[in-house]
Amino acid sequence: MIGARDGQTLIGFVYGFVGLEHGRTIHHSHMLAVRPAYRNCDVGYKLKLAQRERVLAQGITRITWTFDPLQSPNAYFNFCKLGVVSDTYKINFYGPETSSVLHRLGTDRLWVTWLLDSDRVQQRLEGKYVRHEIDSQAPPLVAVDAEGWPRELALKTALAGAYAFIEIPSDINSMQQQNAEQAVRWREVTRHGFTEAFAAGFHVSDFFRQSRSGQSVGVYLLSRAQTGEDLR
Ligand SMILES: CC(C)(COP(=O)(O)OP(=O)(O)OC[C@H]1O[C@@H](n2cnc3c(N)ncnc32)[C@H](O)[C@@H]1OP(=O)(O)O)[C@@H](O)C(=O)NCCC(=O)NCCS
Fold first, then answer.
1. What is the pLDDT of residues 110-148, one digit of tens each?
2. Which CATH topology does 2-125 take?
3. 11, 34, 41: residue to mutate for ligand 1 pocket, most atoms within 8 A of CB
């Protein structure tokens, strides 16, 4: 458990424990939270850096955790800022309903792996990472349409190349309050998209934000190429 303080006030923490995954010793990060007033100021990022340092000092080179793939800020934080990868989608990981406000759409999760000493992570942390242009831009497997609904493409077309894309709305929490049916549809469609793409050999390798006709969307980049590390 590592805390971040502003004076005497605890403003954030990260909590995890040692675990075994596929026979390998890992650190599993169970919780990360920053008080709302202190968000988007790198507190979460600094907590993860501190966690990484301490875990590496124990001789462990990977940290795993889960997050809701419909939460755009978390997707950006995990894939873009930290450089995690994921090839595993867990349906209702904590059961279909819990008391947490984070769980109103069920508890589907991406299981992510932070390969602490990999080139990918080093580059992200040193600010040296440059997103390469992707030659053959496949149409997204799931796209945000003009009314904010998910539009699905045929799997065969979207998963034909080396890369695939899954878009998500930028603010699923507001959508859930304004149009619960639309939010639930997003869960169903992205669950299908991720599970099919993983079954076809893709993994999530990045996430970025895009603005389209005044609408902000998040985009997952899925790659067929190996991460260079065995995630299993
Ligand atoms: C997730 C959480 C810990 C991040 O902490 P934080 O201190 O805000 O994190 P940081 O400031 O280091 O980074 C946040 C990034 O998200 C980005 N972001 C904010 N809103 C976003 C959105 N709608 N879509 C995409 N990215 C967004 C910010 O721009 C920032 O990136 P930048 O530094 O490149 O500008 C915090 O939001 C939180 O406590 N959330 C509630 C609990 C939770 O979800 N825990 C994590 C479960 S995995």
1. 999 999 999 999 999 998 887 766 656 778 999 999 999
2. Aminopeptidase (3.40.630)
3. 34
SS (H, E, C) the chain: CEEEEECCEEEEEEEEEEEEECCEEEEEEEEEEECHHHCCCCHHHHHHHHHHHHHHHCCCCEEEEEECCCCHHHHHHHHHHHCCEEEEEECCCCCCCCCCHHHECECCEEEEEEECCCHHHHHHHCCCCCCCCCCCCCCCCEEECCCCCEEECCHHHHCCCCEEEEEEECCHHHHHHHCHHHHHHHHHHHHHHHHHHHHCCCEEEEEEEEEECCEEEEEEEEECCCCCCCCC
pTM equals 0.94
Q: Which tens digits make up the pLDDT trace of 153-176? A: 999 999 999 999 999 999 999 999
Ligand 1 atom 4 nearest Cα:
44
Domain limits of the chain? Answer: 2-125, 142-223
Q: Is the CB of 39 under 6 A from ligand 1?
A: yes
pLDDT tens-digit profile of 1-39? 999 999 999 999 999 999 999 999 999 999 999 999 999
